[in-house]
Amino acid sequence: MEQQNVIGIDIGGTTVKLAFVTYDGEIIHKWEIPTVVEGGPEGMVEDIATSIRNEQRKLDLSHEDFKGIGAGAPGYISLEEGIVYEAVNIGGWKDVPLSKLLGEATGYNVRIENDANLAALGEYWKGAGDKAEDLLAYTLGTGVGGGIIANGELLHGANGTVAELGHMTVIANGGRHCNCGRTGCLETEASATGIARSALDGIEQGRSTSLKEQYDQSGEISARDVFEAAADGDELAKEIIDHVTNVLGLAISNMAIAINPSKIVIGGGVSKAGDQLLEPLRSKFDRFTLQRTGSAVEFVIASLGNDAGVIGAAYLARQ
């Protein structure tokens, strides 16, 4: 096998996803291991390196069959220095020289990037982004992340906070507290967590809703439950989706006016609602944005699912 294969790694708070990927972006083999934070960054890097060697051995692949590694992690990252400045979801990592540690443990050249940026890059290269030169990607999951591609290049900004799209303020006065320390962030309203929180708020306020019965039975509410209740005509659920698409449409329209994208890719668990999310979102977006900006934009649901991060990481490794 020629030396053009690469390794993509997507480090998350619960699992580390890994894949052997061809130079053309086809996954040869993918697997995951648990994220173990107790041994610190060095312990986790050793787990990753050991796992890579084991899988190479199983598949009868050698070290030389691979060109390098791309790796994503949540938090603030310096691409040039290869440092994770801060990743609260991974054992409170601070100033971790991840490129150096991974390079020493594996013997490969390593490039690192923010995980949401890599998901955007994956969708751009092999997914719903379809190589659109100007693209906005939103991941609506436990939080809200994203990535911005302009003129075919991922934007990075001055110190690693570009495309922290979940932390745009959408509730100017008040709003819920966010993990970033501020209030009113998009993440607190439009994430799966925020949608469930809105449903619980409604139940606590004594609103008449089918979601109450479900909550009483199971002790929890998910974003999916809210979308299903809305489809069945539940008024509270419909109001929540109206609010979510309103704040999301406002945030996306402002970003679109700034970068004038041709594609807006929506991913993450909330995107599984499909047209039930996209249709009202598109309507709100069109209301808030410039008509000419809106005329250039196509909204699409992300297509790579959980593979977006490792494919984006593979694209990074190619470079």
UniProtKB/TrEMBL annotation:
Give the UniProt family note. Answer: Belongs to the ROK (NagC/XylR) family.
The main enzyme category here is: transferase
Q: Name one GO molecular function term.
A: glucokinase activity
Q: Which UniProt keywords apply?
A: ATP-binding, Kinase, Nucleotide-binding, Transferase
Q: Name one Pfam family in it.
A: ROK
Q: What is this protein called?
A: Glucokinase
Under the heading InterPro entries, the entry gives: ATPase_NBD (IPR043129), ROK (IPR000600), ROK_cs (IPR049874), ROK_glcA (IPR004654)
* EC number(s) given by UniProt: 2.7.1.2
